[in-house]
Structures are given as structure tokens and as C-alpha cells.
Amino acid sequence: MDDDTATEILEATYRALCRHGYADLTLKDIADEADRSKAVIHYYYDSKENLFIEFLDFLYERYTAQLPAVDGGTPREQLDTFLETALTDEGVAPAQEFQTALLEVTAQAPYNDAIRMRLTKFEDIFFERAREIIAAGVETGEFDETVEPAVAAEFLMAAITGAHMRRVASNHSSEGSYEAIAQYAERHLLADELSEATQ
Amino acid sequence: MDDDTATEILEATYRALCRHGYADLTLKDIADEADRSKAVIHYYYDSKENLFIEFLDFLYERYTAQLPAVDGGTPREQLDTFLETALTDEGVAPAQEFQTALLEVTAQAPYNDAIRMRLTKFEDIFFERAREIIAAGVETGEFDETVEPAVAAEFLMAAITGAHMRRVASNHSSEGSYEAIAQYAERHLLADELSEATQ
Predict the structure, then answer these.
(1) Which of B103, B152, B180 is closest, CB to CB, to A106?
(2) Of A69-73, A182-186, B126-130, which one has max mean pLDDT?
(3) Residue A51 is assigned to a structural domain of this protein
(4) DSSP label of B185
(5) pLDDT for B45-90, tens place per residue?
(6) Which of A136, A161, A176, B122 is close enough to B162 for a disulfide, judged by CB 3.0 to 4.6 Å?
(7) Which domain holds residue A130?
């Protein structure tokens, strides 16, 4: 298999998805976006669903490859970067069009095991990342010693997921959510002396 | 218009939605569930979309009618009831099947102004409820005086929305989310002396 063509098709899938949404997306839209014939797309992927599963795997590889960028700095700085990345447009947060399509895909997850499995993999790696950062901060004393990393990470993941959904479905500003979530982190995760110093 | 029949059809819509999901739902499914002919359904609602808009208005009336039940007790007790209602099965939280269908509906919101307007109305009333409870608690001194009601309510709404989505799309336990969110409320909203007494 020609890997370059396959990757090109997956990149075209990203753009086609932003343009058309998921429900209405056809292999022809993807072919048009890739400037290829429908036959070429079919040669690589035999159905929209299969292409889509590959596409989710491709996104997963791409996101996990970016994750090490969070590594530098103290746990507090890492958490800032993590939240910024997840919630603001300055970060690499996917564009509104893409999040809109992703919400459609997510709504299919309860009916489609292959999609659900992939979304769960995404969530698990983000959760684990948040948990690690928080645990490291508790370890170094930067975060409050009574914080339970897994509970706080679960809470943050729910808040981030909800912020994305509220932004897409009802036009809530994601800046507002970012501020609320960042304020939570500043006030409630940081050890008291640090948190008071920032107020 | 015969209001009883109309209400009966909307109640049948709820059950049909839980059974079939939103994307595949037909007026025939709703007719079958209501034990009526398709012609009767058409007499009241001329399309699936119109029926659905009425259905969302019907849910809105029903939920807002339930809201006063939260009124009794102190702000802290009210917040407990609010979270329990929103997140646990013991509350009147809609069943998993319904939340699954609701996620599909939400995914349509970016493409459908009438649906988006209704979902926003739902969110606004829940947000406002949470904000009021938190503001009352800050007022009475039960909640910490540094808590900003609107910011905390925004955060809670995002976390609750996200918890619902994670439950539906990737089988996260909603009990786990409920515990994380309730723990946040206990630890970070309550005034210090009360919060320490519960640990």
C-alpha cells in the first residue's frame, strides 16, 4: 500500500469532515477534497465506515505524537499547557467545524463498537495524562496534598468534554469555560500558599 | 386540538426515542408506540422535525415543573439534590437510552436552529438554577465567600454535561462522575469550617 496516498486521503477526510459534517459525508466528498477519483478511495478503503475507523486511528497517532510537547516545565505549567491546548483556539484545539463533526461521530458511538472503542482510547490517554500531571504536582508539593489525582483528573475531563459540547451545541464561548476551568485549577489544586499568592 | 391525544403522542415519542434512537426514528415508530395510525400522528404534527420541536418544548415544561422540588432545605442540601437529580439513577435523571438519543439530537443542533434554541433554553434554566443555589449559599455563609456563583455554576454545568456525554459515548460510570463532582462541591464550595468537618 502506498502510504503517502493513504495519508493524503486521511488528511482530505479531515477537511471534508469540517466542510460537510459526518452524517452527510460521502466517499465522493472525500475524493473531491483529495483531488482523486472515487475508485482510488475505494481501492484503499472499502466503505465510509472503514475509512472512518482508519481516520480515528490516524488522529490518535497524530495527537499522541503531540503529547510530549506538554512535558517541559513544572506540573503547574504542564497543567496550564494541557488546559490551554484542550480549550483555547491558541492551542492546537481542533477548529469549531471539526468539533462539530466530532460530536456527530460521538453520537454514533453508542451504536458502533469500533467507534466507541477508539473514542475511549482517546479519552483514556487524555485522562491518564491529566492524572500524571496532577500526581506529579502533589508529589512535588506544588498541588495540595489532599488532592486525589484520579478524582481531580476525572472531574477535569468531564468539564473539558462538557465545555466542548456546550460550545458546539449551543454556542457557549469556550473562553468562558476555559476561564472557569483554569480558575478551578488555580484555586483548588494548587497548595494553599501558592494559590493565595495568585489572588 | 385534543390535548390528551397530543400529550399521548409526545409520551409515545419519548418511549420510541429510547427504543430506536433519533437518527432511525420514524413517524411510524411513534404511531406504533402510541397505538395510533400514522394518519393521526400526521394530523397533529406534519413532520418528524416539527413533532420533535414540540417534543423538546414538552420536555422543557415537564422539567421546569419538577424544578421547584429542589427548593426545600439549605443551599447545601439544595445543591446535593441538584447534583443527585442530574447525575444519579436514583434521581429523576433520564435513563441511559434517553441520554443516548439526546446526544444524537444535540449533535444535530449545530445544523438546526430550532433544536439549538431549545437546547440552549434547557441549559440556561439549569445554569440559572445552579447559580441561584450557589449565590444563596455564599449569601448565608454556607459556601465560601470567595466563590463566584456564575463561574462555579458554569464549571458545574460543563462537568455535568461532560459526565453525561462520557457515560453515553464511552460507558464511563456516572457514579464515578457523580462522586468526583460531589467531592468538588463538598471541598471547594463549602466554607472552610464546614468543609473540614466533613472530611
Answers:
(1) B103
(2) B126-130
(3) no
(4) I
(5) 888 888 989 999 998 888 777 665 666 789 999 998 888 878 876 5
(6) A161
(7) 69-197
Contacts of B151 in chain A (CB under 8 A): 179-180, 183
B127 within a domain of the structure (yes/no): yes
Number of domains present in the structure of chain A: 1
Within-domain flag for A45: no
* Residue A42: alpha-carbon gap to chain centroid: 28
Cell numbers of B33, please?
408506540
| CA-based R_g, chain B, Å | 19
Question: Which pLDDT band holds residue A195 (cuts at 50, 70, 90)?
Answer: low
A155 membership: H or E segment, kind and range:
helix A149-170
CB A9 within 8 A of CB A51: yes
pLDDT of residue A71: 65
d(CA B189, CA B12): 41
- Under an 8 Å CB criterion, which residues of A touch B? 21, 23, 100, 103-104, 106-107, 109-111, 116, 119-120, 123, 146, 151-152, 154-155, 157-163, 165-166, 168-172, 176-177, 179-181, 183-184, 187-188, 199
3-class SS shares of chain A: helix, strand, coil, % to 5: 80, 0, 20
Q: What cell does A144 get?
A: 495540595
C-alpha cell at A62: 497524530
For the cut 70, the answer to whether the pLDDT of residue B109 exceeds it is yes
Q: How far apart are CA B110 and CA A98, in angstroms?
A: 12
Which residues does residue B190 pair with via DSSP β-bridges, in sequence order? B143
Backbone phi and psi for residue A181, each to the nearest 5 degrees, phi listed first: -75, -40
The answer to whether position B8 is within a domain reads: no
Least-confidence region, from A21-35, A48-62, B75-89? B75-89
**ipTM reported for the complex surpasses 0.85:** no
d(CA A86, CA A92): 8
Q: Which CATH number is B154's domain given?
A: 1.10.357.10
